[in-house]
Every structure is written in structure tokens, then in C-alpha cells.
């Protein structure tokens, strides 16, 4: 299964990069209740829960289905169905970041209130919560029901509050998943307005108890990432970062040789594909039609030329890349500011490479000291071409390093890379 972003006909204006405090709050809540997914945040999570009020603890239990595997769409920009707006929205231009957050206690304006977050939508947490509060109750119930059943492709909850069949479907699906989902679904069906009011009160309590401090530290980094991604989408800067001036010269030469609209469109599509693919190690770029494919546990096709996409950076959600594509709303990619280097495919290939008994023996030898192919062939009773093929495979996977000394090339096992295999597998399985 995969998420496919079809780039045919798309341009930089098909994407908006938005910094969203509510989306980052959802990432924090996920890290608090799913600490096994985020071991690097475990100490932070313990400190937050140790100092949490009884009301906050109760809310973490009650509303946890909203930030589990399928994130509630209410956390993300464009909830009212319109494209997130802001300085340079979707144009690729880089707005000047606003002033820093000004958190305050209790019901006072929260982080960034009254000023933009600097990129894309840029609305403060309170404005985003007001958007949730203004959402038609039928739409609120529909989106919350999707979260209760951990999916939306097999369900229709558009008339949930008036349809006995849809209510029964929600109760049955939620009960099959967990007691927490069953209880939240029952609350939603019993009194959706109270359910929403309680949720909003809980989210505001999160702001006053821990999130104001989190946002003060996270917002500048998220803004920098958003500006960088916007630049890569708009001008191909992502290529220049990786390829330096040589790549820029290559683009200039190509344009000089074929100064046509087709070439310009192709370059734009390539720039978009490279920028999007950089958001996750589990991505691939395909042609005819040009598209970027993310390896995910659900299937979805997104066409930015018809439905503009919102990109939202996150620090607390790493390594997850969350893709939201609910019917009638702008698709959202909630991407980590630092994408992991190892994805599912590479992690799996590294494990498989070390199941071959010849490679295991080879690795044991070069783990102790660097050796040449001639030495390894003699020790392993293999031909040099055989040894070279194994070494090439291990080098391609980043497990072996070559060191030249005069006329000789010595091979050494990258112990740090091997040591990380277990951790890389765990992180890759969560993308």
C-alpha cells in the first residue's frame, strides 16, 4: 500500500507550507501517550505527566484515539475546506517570520496569538481552536467518527447524527478496536456538542500546562524548515543543496540547449518531486505520469493540480510522516523537520544482507581489522570476484567502508551502521 502524489499539471502554487501550533500539539499528545514510538522524548513525557493536573490526565485517556495511528483531521490547517492563507501562500515566496510567541497563563491568548506563525496559514492556536468550534456539528461528528474507527476509506459518516445505520456502523467498528474508542464514540453519539466543548477545553488546558513552553522552542525551527521546503518546491533549491554549483550549471546548460516550455515544465516537475521525496526515506519517484510514492500502510492518490496540498513541518512527530486525505478537505503532509536517513526498504535490505553466511563471515573478518579483497578471498576460500560482489553489495547498503592506502584498498565494517540496524528498523516501521 502507498500514498501516491501525482504531479502531472502541478506547480509550486499547488502546495502551501503552513506552520501549525495545533498540528504540533497533536504530535506532542501522540508522544505523551505512545512513548514507545518516541524514546528520545520519554524523559520529556514523564516530566509532563508527572506535573499534569487530574483534568489533563483524564483528557489524555479520554481523547487518545484522536492522536493515535489515524490523526484527527481537526488538528490540521484547511479544516473549513478552504486553502490555508498567509503571506506568500502557495507562491513559493518566503515571508518574514513573525515575532516570537507570547504564552500566558489560563485563558489568555496563547502562543503566537495576534500574529502570524511566519509561514502559510500562520494562525495561532486560539484561532485554530475557534475554527474547530465553528465547524458544523455534523462535520465535527463525521471527522471524529473517522478517528474513532481509525480509517475513512471504508466508512460513510456524513449523516452520522441522523442515520441509525451509520451510528450502528460506528459503534460496531469502534467496539472492535478498543474500549477507549468505544467510549469516545458513545460520547460523540450521545452529545456531540458537549464532546466538542470538552475537547476544546482539554486542548486549551494542554496549552496552559505544557504546550506554551513547547511551542516557544519549536516554532522557530518549524518556521525555518517551512521556508526551506517552500524554497525547494519553488525554485529547485533542494537540488542545489545536495548538488552544489555543479547541479546549477547542469540546469543552466539544459535550459540553454532546450529553451522550451516543455523543458521548463519538466524541470519544475523534477524539482517538486525531489522536494517531496526528501520528506521521507520511504519515498520513490516514478514517471508516466510523474509521481512521488510514499510507502504507507494505507492507499491514497493525491492530485495537487486539482486539490492543492498543505505541508506542515513537525519536530515532535518524528519519525512519522502523517498523510491526511479526508474527503472534501485539502490533503495534508505532516512531515518531520529531520527526515530519518533509513527507511523500511533500506532497513530490510540491511537485515537480509546479513543473513547470507558468506557475508556474515566476511563481516566478522573486517570488523576486527581492515582487509583487502585478496586477503579476504584467501581467508574465505572464495575468488576475488566473489568477494568483490559481496563487498559491493554491503557498500551499497552503507555497511562497509573502503579505505585506500597506496596501491591497496582496505575494507572495514561500519560498526556504527550495524549497531543502528535494530533502531533503524524500529523507526522505519513507524514511518
What would your notes on this structure say?
This protein is α/β, with parallel strands linked by helices. Helix content is 50%, strand content 11%. The strands form three sheets. It has a four-stranded mixed β-sheet with strand order 3-4-1-5, covered by helices on one side. Strands 2-6-8-7 form a four-stranded mixed β-sheet. Helix 6 runs antiparallel to helix 7 and helix 11 packs antiparallel against helix 16. About 15% of the residues have low confidence.
Condensed summary:
The protein has helices at 21-33, 42-50, 54-62, 125-134, 137-148, 164-177, 179-190, 192-235, 237-257, 261-277, 344-353, 357-368, 373-380, 384-396, 415-419, 421-428; strands at 2-6, 15-17, 283-286, 291-295, 300-302, 309-314, 322-324, 332-336, 400-405, 408-413. The chain has 431 residues and is an alpha/beta fold. The strands form 3 sheets. Strands 3-4-1-5 form a 4-stranded mixed beta sheet, with helices on one face. It has a 4-stranded mixed beta sheet with strand order 2-6-8-7.
